## 1
Amino acid sequence: MSMPVSHPQLNARGELKHLLTLEGLPRESILHILDTARQFIDASGREIKKMPLLNGVSVFNLFFEHSTRTRSAFEIAAQYLSADVLNLDIPASSTRKGESLLDTIHTLSAMQPDVFVIRHMQSGAPVLIAQHCAPHLHIINAGDGWHAHPTQGLLDMYTIRHYKRDFTRLTVALVGDILHSRVARSDIHALTTLGVPEVRVICPRTLRPAGLERFGVRVFDSIDEGVQGVDIIIMLRIQRERMNGPFLPDAREYFKNWGLTPERLARAAPEAIVMHPGPVNRGVEIESSVADGAQSVILQQVRFGIAVRMAVMSIVAAGDH
Amino acid sequence: MSMPVSHPQLNARGELKHLLTLEGLPRESILHILDTARQFIDASGREIKKMPLLNGVSVFNLFFEHSTRTRSAFEIAAQYLSADVLNLDIPASSTRKGESLLDTIHTLSAMQPDVFVIRHMQSGAPVLIAQHCAPHLHIINAGDGWHAHPTQGLLDMYTIRHYKRDFTRLTVALVGDILHSRVARSDIHALTTLGVPEVRVICPRTLRPAGLERFGVRVFDSIDEGVQGVDIIIMLRIQRERMNGPFLPDAREYFKNWGLTPERLARAAPEAIVMHPGPVNRGVEIESSVADGAQSVILQQVRFGIAVRMAVMSIVAAGDH
Amino acid sequence: MSMPVSHPQLNARGELKHLLTLEGLPRESILHILDTARQFIDASGREIKKMPLLNGVSVFNLFFEHSTRTRSAFEIAAQYLSADVLNLDIPASSTRKGESLLDTIHTLSAMQPDVFVIRHMQSGAPVLIAQHCAPHLHIINAGDGWHAHPTQGLLDMYTIRHYKRDFTRLTVALVGDILHSRVARSDIHALTTLGVPEVRVICPRTLRPAGLERFGVRVFDSIDEGVQGVDIIIMLRIQRERMNGPFLPDAREYFKNWGLTPERLARAAPEAIVMHPGPVNRGVEIESSVADGAQSVILQQVRFGIAVRMAVMSIVAAGDH
């Protein structure tokens, strides 16, 4: 699969300059990230800490939308690589002085960071920033609106490869709020690119995006049918604030219709694994016994997430110093 | 004095794995921490900065209850030892997404930290976490509810030993809000363990915990009587929000009955020292001239607190790398 | 120009101990800072990152007034010099426990930092702290009330020297809200000390401080007249909360009377540069096309600000380790 060299994430030599989305990211780029991440995990399965790889590199964590969990994962990954990290929670600061997004970015760019990790509530903000920022800068999208969450997608791929090795024989099911899920979008792009032959989407009609079919997925109205024989179940988080509104009934009703129970999990392949981007709503999208059960790899996802973010940061920043 | 090997703070070899409480912590463990802290203070009385002892060690400061002062002390201590530090103020984050305490802990544990420093408004939270966390993790209690504040207790012991050397000839008085004070509990356990023959507790009846006598302390209703001849006076902080309620009259009345004045201090031993965990309410529990006077060692407590926290962190994390 | 040795910013050998204000700071001290900053910028115009100069030095960023931008600049500068940095946003912490400013400072001093970077809403707070803090400490004023913002003044001087080299042939205009501007005060003191023959102040009468003439400036009521032939235009930020009140009309009216437009800029010298401390209010004090135009050096100011802060920190902390 070849990509036009002008793709905004890749430089003229086809190397990863930014990580904005997994849509259109070449298979080789994804595999290179996963292979690199593998090197950051030692024989005991723990991250190798304190490598001098990014010594002298400045990483700015720009979080226009709050996320302790994702911000921490990037901060730790940067620390393990010996980079300097600056955390900036922007809602509480210059935005309230009426400064525009690009003015903020240009000002921070003038402080000579190397990497911006950006989370933003608006879809497309990281792409916009990548188009306008100084040439020495690298943008890593840490989640933008409903659009993309590429490092989550990559850590999900790492997890799947860790447990299943070969993507080309798998059936993968995503379950839940597809409509609002940047995780689902990134997962679907990555799974497709890596050659997963069957990607299933299981969701209520009210949470199904228009035109979902063009992503090459099979859509199911029933979780009992949808999980039948699958190798991987990726549960999506339901935002509680979406409950009791036009999209969703109450939590109990949602769990009855869409929650992952031991009975439903039993319909999947015997070696199936259960994934979730976290934080888990126990008793809403997943039963506690499943979240904590032998087939759950939810905490391993978090663990691999550090290595994957180390990989992304070290790859984008590698050429510069 | 021997301890059962199964004590949750000590590992099978009797080494400090967690620091949860000073209750039941063996005398040798306390003295080992104080001796180690001593090595982090140079001849000029300043901490020795930038030792590579904890290079590659990750310390997560998890503050479920706000405290700039204590959080800073742990952060600085970790920095001086060359550890990586991640600060997480949790009230503002995942708790508001409805995630449980243990889910938060398990998720953060998956990021492979080595040490959790935990402050929590609920008594027992650090113990609960120590019981459920991954085996490679070390928990340091930075204050939980009314239960314990062991690093404050240890720095108080360091301070007392610095000025008085021998614990076995001292009379120590704690004055103020014993009922709500985790500092008082930790101090009483440590003083008793270290062989202080007379520990006095001076407090209003409304702020006296039930069953106080079983801790082996002498209880006084009058500060004038209670401070008579003591070598150490540890003033406790009054929470202003407890004033004008069922527990306490107004601040002026409190100061009149329980405040440490120069006249009252004069009733203590001539070389008596005055301690306070800070922040001081001047004119409420202590007169300014006493807080700033020649017998006050309040700022020295803060200073020793850095070395003591360096000691605790380096001891618990020592076995692992 | 000679200064009394007792000046609170300089030690007995005339070396910079604190940086509190540019008022009265000797010309040689200013030039030494600018020369030092020059060494932190490499041939490509970027800061040199990760010098071990301040390894083992602790910098506490004490922000009693919120400022993401300035706090970040100091944090990055400290990181580039390998110092340890502790960020403390104080409004949200001990102040709410009723602790006094000096108690907070004494407590933090006991933790053995080397440098306090202080921003405070009250004029004079850093001077007060410098008078009362422990002798080993260095205070850097990061902006206090309307009084002074010396690192901004210094980075403005660095910028002017970078583009114009010789201060003694320049005409410089400051435009806008002089009354509330600590930047204006610091700039005026520095420009005067460095021998700029003509400093102009252009502002509405309601924003003109009493006794402005004693600073040796020329006051203008009209921006069209004031910018005539100047080499440097320093635009000041208008606080939006001051609009529609006793001081100022609405933003549109302000822009009409005092905003920098291309037409007004054309009245300046052909090679004139436009400066602004940021964040810019586009369409209020300056037209976007000017802020982004060829003569604008606003982002270069931010860039030089890192090097200047590195210089100040390394100079004040140099003697101690």
## 2
Amino acid sequence: MSGTTDGTLSEFELIRRYFSGRDRGLGIALGLGDDCALLAPRPGHHVAVSVDTMVLDTHFFADQPAAAVGHKALAAALSDLAAMGAEPMGVLLAVTLPEVDEDWLREFAEGMGELADRLRVPLIGGDTTRGPLAISVTVLGQAPSGSALRRSAARPGDLVVVSGALGGAFAGLQAELERREAGREPPLTEDPVCQRFFRPEPRLALGKVLRGRTRTAIDVSDGLLADLAHVCEASDCGAVLQADALPHDPLLAEWTPGAALAAVLSGGDDYELLFAWSARQRDELRPLASALQLPLTVIGEFTAGSGVQVLDAGGSPVLPAERGFDHFGRG
Amino acid sequence: MSGTTDGTLSEFELIRRYFSGRDRGLGIALGLGDDCALLAPRPGHHVAVSVDTMVLDTHFFADQPAAAVGHKALAAALSDLAAMGAEPMGVLLAVTLPEVDEDWLREFAEGMGELADRLRVPLIGGDTTRGPLAISVTVLGQAPSGSALRRSAARPGDLVVVSGALGGAFAGLQAELERREAGREPPLTEDPVCQRFFRPEPRLALGKVLRGRTRTAIDVSDGLLADLAHVCEASDCGAVLQADALPHDPLLAEWTPGAALAAVLSGGDDYELLFAWSARQRDELRPLASALQLPLTVIGEFTAGSGVQVLDAGGSPVLPAERGFDHFGRG
């Protein structure tokens, strides 16, 4: 049910308070409190839907500030809408909690609610359940029929473009792990160095702008190589990347070149968008990046064949780093 | 992401196999394998969405046949669509698993897939994640704009009608608990006596038929009294039930009258539909029930005021049983 499966209305009510009470957004015919929420997508639009689950010890630390857990759970889910070029309509939140920890729940809801309000995503359903801590976020969005970005339409000769910088989330996680290794107390708020890991930003504005300008995008959640491989597989093509072109997060400045490259290629969790771009439109990237205030970097091109190759400045293949760090022992 | 958040493609693939591979149903523009699924609701329709989470030890037993877990997780979620009068479009399945237990997963997927195929609900997204066993099911459906059944439109004088019989799920759970108490081995398949608890049937056909004939319905998941109270609260009215009119599940035949009444009023998990019905249309119930091959019983009426009263044959109030058994210690 949409609101109160287990009679834990008060817990869900507590969460709800941090969402400005707005469950009747544009396109929401019925919000919280019934068996289902009802969406009224615009005529000629498709509804995009995705679900993302975050589990304690697999995706976040027990002593991690709860606000960051709330932020990231929503951000990761919204990133899937961004990757489709869909505009968010609403979110459903299923929280499983071992016990009523009002402080944790309040902080969690605050972190998620802050992002939801900033991006104008109403909370339209969900529930709280008793059990081991886990968060399942369902996001819904809309995009004009036929215009949603898929993984399957990259063509040989298209440029491979990525937004922002890569490796920052991985660097942030490493900093956090080192801090823990050193036995230091968990901080009440996150270290700014860890922001890219704890507080990713879904690239919704970019996704919307890409719609109509390209047909292929994915978000970089598993890692650049892994996600690019998903696109290549779905599009039945290959890709070649130029190692020197890859945008490194500033946090990697002090890293050895090999470690930095590995973080950029396989770190994951950056939630940037990776997309195909017609070579003829190359000149349009700069004004687009400028309008969005977000770097858009050509890092290679799609090719006939299959698989992803990374070349160094001399044109020699770089040994592919392992695909995606198993940082939380997950998978 | 829609398919493979944690790279556990093979596990999700294993689940998928039991859904006839149909992820491109009517109204599905894009199924599995991209960042989101895309739905194409019919013009003039709203999209109904709900999420339901089932957690080990809270909602099901560790040694319970996994097929029943799969069946019930989907049935409970679809019941929310039934309660809105929405026709199912698709389901997203987020499974959290402590380890790869292929046998469990196969049986689980088989149980869920069987129901999904019978009701023609395609699997359009979801993922598998590492962590304590839990299942989160997101269902999507559609209904003509303005026709979805809500909780909020019951009016004093409307009849209170319930489908099927009540208390059977509770009786089934009791039988199962007694079997466990007696230390008997868990059976490989469920006892037929427990079917109403383990294998509820979402009343989708009824919900669809009710659309246009009434504006108010809810599914009986928390228990008759609790769910009727939800309707009364949302509709700003009260209700009076006739104890003698309540349809008892045959499993309660040997129970004491008091225990049977408590099971009927508060047992929960029956997933029948409870709806408001204009007194003027009373004669239409019988042919409807006959067409659906499902009993539809007038059990009382909505009243001015608030709260739910239960009257015995002599018109005296029956002491309300506690609202909803806390059978799994949940809530």
